[in-house]
Amino acid sequence: MFDSIFQNLFNALQWGSFYSLIALGYTLVYGVLRLINFAHGDIFMVGAYIAFFLSIFFFKGDLALSGSTTLVLVIPLTMILTSICGVTLERIAYRPLRRKGANRLYVVITALMCGLILENGNLAFLGASRKSFPELIDKVVYQFGPISMTNLKIGVVLSSIIVFFILNAFITKTKIGMAMRAISYDKFAIPLMGIPIDTIIVVTFVLGSSLAGLAGILFAMSYPVLDPFMGALIGWKAFIAAVVGGIGDIKGAFVGGFLLGIVEIMAVAVFPSTFRDLIAFSILLMILVVKPTGLFGIAKSTKI
Q: Which CATH number do you get for residue 115?
């Protein structure tokens, strides 16, 4: 019994890594703009497709590079190209509304529309057929007592942890990170201090979208079947994880992602898989009932 519990816990860490990376993107944008970027899950999907086409080009194309070399090239390129996608959405869809002082509800509706455009644009140009992601690295199974781990699963978990610590250091130690935190406190006073708000917002979207792109690569390598709507459900779940952790706090988003992964996997281990989402969301709802601001969230007063 304990053997299966430990095995499921490790599997949960892998799923939690995907949720955490996506949730970090949600919480970064919300922390700076107070905007819930509902297109973020579909940016994750775009990242997975970008990684797919880059892998085909480097691994199976005329270059025919080795899998490890391909992976070294694909990861940074995918993160860069995915961040360009996120910044493009910000420039085209969100910035004009922000400059016109549009109601926050209109911005949320625009974000939903952008997600649908990404999904259906993918469907229109690439078709409904699923893509099979190439196997870039040979899977190696490690046995630690009763727990079996693959090199890919270990890499996914370690990647998410390393990214969190790098992001946390960036937010707390650099001038841009301090400017991001300052905007979240008072965006009206920031221009008076000479801080370019648009530049900081672009950096925020670059960071958030690149994390979604990294999650797309790791997810595609772990579950190598891609379809245009793959980002919808996992994006919503990552958003819920960010809310449960305390949206606006990167530590909360990180912990919330792992918490959701653990709850889901443990629910499947005990109950039929059809009960997974029901049980997981019920537990998360109870957490929010007890602590509406999330695990690490802090209630804030609004000046009128």
A: 1.10.3470
